[in-house]
Amino acid sequence: MHNKLENLMGKMGAFIYDNPLKVIVVVLILLAFPLSHVPQIKMDTSTEGFMHDDDPVLLEYNEFRAQFGRDERVIVALKSDDIFTLKFFETLKSMHDEIESTVPFVDDITSLYNVRNTRGDGDQLITDDLLEPFPTTQEEVNSIKERALASHFYKDLFISKDGKMTTMVIETDAYSHEGEKEVSDVDAFDEGFGDEVENTTEESKDRPFLTDKENAQLVSAVLAIVQKYKQEGIEMYMAGSPSVNHALKSQMQADMQKFMRITFLIILVFLFVMFRRASAVFYPLIVIILSLLATVGTMAWSGVAFKLPTQIVPSLLLAVSIGATVHILSIFFDKFNTTGEKREAIQYTLGHSGLAIAMTSVTTAIGVGSFSGSQVAPISDLGMFASLGVMISLFLTLTLLPALLSITKMKQKVKTEAGKLDRFMKRLAVIPVKHYRSIIALSAVLVVVALFAATKIELSHNPLKWFQPDSYDRVSTEVIDEALNGSVTIELIIDTQKENGWNDPVRLKKLNKLSKEMEQYVDNYTHIGKVVSLATIVNETNRALHENREEYYTIPDNADLVSQELLLFENSGSDDLEDVVDSQFSKARISIKLPWTDAVRATKVLGYVKEVATKTFPEDKVITTGMIPLLINTFSHAVSSSVTSYFIAFVGISLMMMFILGSVRIGLLSMIPNLTPIILGLLLMYYVRIPLDMFTLLIGSIAIGLAVDDTIHFLHNFRRYYLESGDSAKAIEQTFFTTGKAMVITTIVLSLGFYAYMMANMISVQNFGLLTGSVIILALLADLLLAPALMIVVAKRGWIK
């Protein structure tokens, strides 16, 4: 069977040599469609982009956004010892007005300039802006300072406890404006009419939410204004998930693009040094670039956006394509330099390695494709499109590359003596033959140590820690979290499932008690900084209607009085009520503010919020949503899905290895050098304190691809030479001279390319480069030392037939 397929590959090589232009034209025609869609590719770094459209957590979040608007806010903080001065207020007003009038997609902006100031004047309830009318004397400013620092609502939201930091909270539009018609006036008129508002909410479910591109425009515009005022000497910080996600996307894109170029340059130089031929330098790059563009074009055509995990796709395709093309080139030039016959060299190369390359690519596609069932949308996309890219690369390696070699004029370079690499491979081939027992024993010890170390690796999903410690975005978030007790929220929805359920003073008192209780929460990793809810408004209103006396900052006992106070607040001109309760007064929103927290460590606080809310309102429907729950959901899905994916990959690759090697026992044994580099990669992670996060979780997909490629090439050729000679030592030496050389060249090129990523700005990209480069080297060592050592044991037992 193997011989028939190899002969068929050889005949295909001869056909390509005889018809190179036809092959090139057909290939380009087939690629034209996906390549034409490349410009349409979109980028998405939103947290909700990590979930499938039918994910229950995302559906709850979408329902929340449709009802209450987007919970992701941009926070601009101004730090000064002189906040309560006329000069500072004028700066604040100027900046507030500039953001309001020039920044796109802003739904609302709140600062000390326009924050609600709920107070009573006799029997009248007044909710005007804090700086209305705008102060003209320092005495008026001092009066405002007294009110601001005494406010329960402002503290940790708009002013720090020490009065030295104030914020502008920018709420973004929930919905996208792409292609929308001007209907805002009608919507504004419809507000307040119960049934019609519900209908609007139903219709809005079909509207797309604010896009990643629009979010980027908004954040960039705010950042430009912040930079302008910073130049005037004001200490300013900018945080919030829209800002952090935008910075994450910008830096990661810049890093990935920069280091893909550096990697390409390293590959160019090294291929030229190894082969000393221009064709050996540029033809692999043509295969890589076309494979990558065809894959990206197919993603664009399918409407799939590029997300943070799918940025690994180019690196994976680069690794797989280089491996396959270098094997073809290494064997082709060895044969061509020996015979001088190009047709014979192409026929021999495809006959010798074509089947092995095809099998390695199919196996890699199975390994990576196992991720396509992931519950995390971009990891699923990675599995689907990376496996497609691998197959495109295979197709181009076996068709376009030989066709290009066929039409290229080249001179035979006759070897007069063995090259340095040949001499090195000859010396290396002796080691696994002489020391096979020691190699197997040492490998076993290292694997056991690595598995123990793997249990100590920290789980983490904290995109903020991907930035350098001195990064503006990381520093801003940490400063704001420290001064104002948080910059992100858990959103708690309590649905009474009946109209006017939240007019009940008993229920409101429970909510008030729950809010106070939650504000006391502290664990080893985080704490709840502030809780804002309907109870906040009722407390404020009740105090205002009782001569602004602090002892009346409480919930009234009488249901009619609660209804009356809420009606007075609603009619006073403030629209803040719609942020905390729906129009039917059946659903209440409780915003729980806390510092930016690692998603793994935030599970405890989320569990606490769910538990106390359910205990307090046992008969009501309790939903937790918002940024923190979304991050937790994403990472828990990523871990559980990846475990399943790696298991499927292991089973699929094992079956392929059994088929390729024609033996169940040898197929299972071959998984040892496949898995060893990945396991030793975990030891490296433990040693350099790299957490297991969304990025490092996916490095295994590249490691599987590369380790399997090398193992198949080695074992496939070893089996062929062993069956010819019956001598395992001679078979190892022959394998080292052919496939072994290609494996060494590929490893040096790729490891250098990936190690270049260690010079990136993003810590996650640095870790990616270090681990991937190291795992590539470990995969080579496993295939040049451990695999031959195992084959000697197998040969002695007579298992190779």
What structural category arises from helix and sheet content? alpha+beta
- How does the major sheet shape up? 4 strands, antiparallel
Mean pLDDT equals 86
Instruction: Please give the number of β-strands.
Output: 10
Q: Taking Cα atoms only, what radius of gyration do you get, to the nearest Å?
A: 32 Å
- In helices, the fraction of residues equals 55-70%
Strand-residue fraction?
A: 5-15%
Structure commentary:
By secondary structure, this protein is α+β, with helices and mostly antiparallel strands. Helix content is 64%, strand content 8%. It is built from 27 helices and ten strands. The protein has helices spanning 2-18, 20-36, 56-68, 86-102, 138-150, 184-190, 194-204, 212-230, 241-275, 278-302, 312-339, 342-369, 377-398, 400-407, 420-434, 436-454, 472-484, 505-518, 534-544, 559-571, 603-616, 627-661, 664-669, 671-687, 696-725, 728-755, 763-796, and strands spanning 73-79, 106-110, 116-121, 124-129, 165-172, 235-239, 488-495, 530-532, 587-594, 621-625. A hairpin with a 2-residue loop joins strand 3 and strand 4 (124-129). Helix 4 (86-102) packs antiparallel against helix 8 (212-230) and helix 24 runs antiparallel to helix 27 (763-796). The longest helix has 35 residues, at 241-275. It is elongated and about 105 Å long.
Task: Give the secondary structure arrangement, pairings included.
Elements: H1 2-18, H2 20-36, H3 56-68, E1 73-79, H4 86-102, E2 106-110, E3 116-121, E4 124-129, H5 138-150, E5 165-172, H6 184-190, H7 194-204, H8 212-230, E6 235-239, H9 241-275, H10 278-302, H11 312-339, H12 342-369, H13 377-398, H14 400-407, H15 420-434, H16 436-454, H17 472-484, E7 488-495, H18 505-518, E8 530-532, H19 534-544, H20 559-571, E9 587-594, H21 603-616, E10 621-625, H22 627-661, H23 664-669, H24 671-687, H25 696-725, H26 728-755, H27 763-796
Helix pairs in contact: 1-12, 1-14, 2-10, 2-14, 4-8, 9-10, 9-26, 10-11, 10-13, 10-14, 11-12, 11-13, 11-25, 11-26, 12-13, 12-22, 12-25, 15-26, 15-27, 16-24, 16-27, 18-21, 19-20, 22-25, 24-25, 24-27, 25-26, 25-27, 26-27
